[in-house]
Amino acid sequence: MLVNMKDMLAQARAEKRAIGAFNVANYETALAVFKAAEAEKSPVIVQLYMRLFDTGKARDLAPTLRGLAERATVPVALHLDHGSTEKQAEDALAWGYTSVMFDGSRLPYAENAARTKAVADRAHAAGATCEGEIGHVAMGDGTALTDVAEAAAFGKETGVDALAVSIGTAHGYYKAEPKLDIPRCAAIAEALPGVPLVLHGGSGTPLADVRRAIECGIAKVNIATEFLDTYIKTTLKVFGDLNGGFVPPDKLADPIVDACAAHVARLIRFFAGR
Ligand SMILES: [Zn+2]
Fold first, then answer.
1. β strands within 147-226, DSSP E
2. Residue 83 half-sphere exposure, CB side, CA atoms within 13 Å?
3. Rg of the chain (C-alpha set)
4. What separation in Å is there between the alpha carbon of 72 and the centre of ligand 1?
5. CATH number, domain at 24?
6. Residue 88 vs residues 75, 107, 264: alpha-carbon distances, Å
7. How far is the CA of 166 from the centre of ligand 1 (A)?
8. Is the pLDDT of residue 175 over 90?
9. For 198-209, how does the pLDDT look when each residue is reduced to its tens digit (9 = 90+)?
10. Is 139's pLDDT higher than 80?
11. pTM here?
């Protein structure tokens, strides 16, 4: 069923579990996430990076994703990841996405809070949920760890349904193993007992650290790089094995989808503590 993130994250946080949020970029990667969630009987978040909202790909994929979610036997939220403009959030809601992120983490505090609150109000009016970010999880630039008092104020001021925090992860693959600031995570969670926290930069973070973060209030773990990399590596192998032969593209995609679904299923089980 197509839902927003509210109930699945609240329940996960209460039970010290996390919901996997997987970045998809086309039909095959999306299908893999739906298949894995149904096989694991687990709620899931299917998210698209903001770039796909600017190029129109998120609009074109929306009817397919909504159909898959409505027919799914598990709750599925469709989410805009790292929305950077109000227009992306507006478009997402108009196209039937049930959740939006406004990432103002590089803006001054007051501007981040004001713009996030406006997007959250707009999302709530449409029956959708909103994720904000305070502190900055690096994407090739400087990380700023989340300040506990600032996070507490931000959560209360904006009314976000989920809050991305910076506790030592980074986007993309790591050059050196990250060290997560678990006490910081626990302190933020204690200051915001009703707000599920979000871990960005999940790819390649040591799983033992992810587990400790989940025990300290992280209820949504974002996975993009390692999942999409599985898609690329499997695609290379399948296309290489074809060796000049012919297979209809939909059949060619089946083993790629299966490999991606197996990857997602492993992570869903881990985030659920199974
Ligand atoms: Zn992120």
1. 162-165, 197-199, 218-223
2. 27
3. 18
4. 26
5. 3.20.20.70
6. 24, 17, 27
7. 10
8. no
9. 999 988 889 999
10. no
11. 0.97
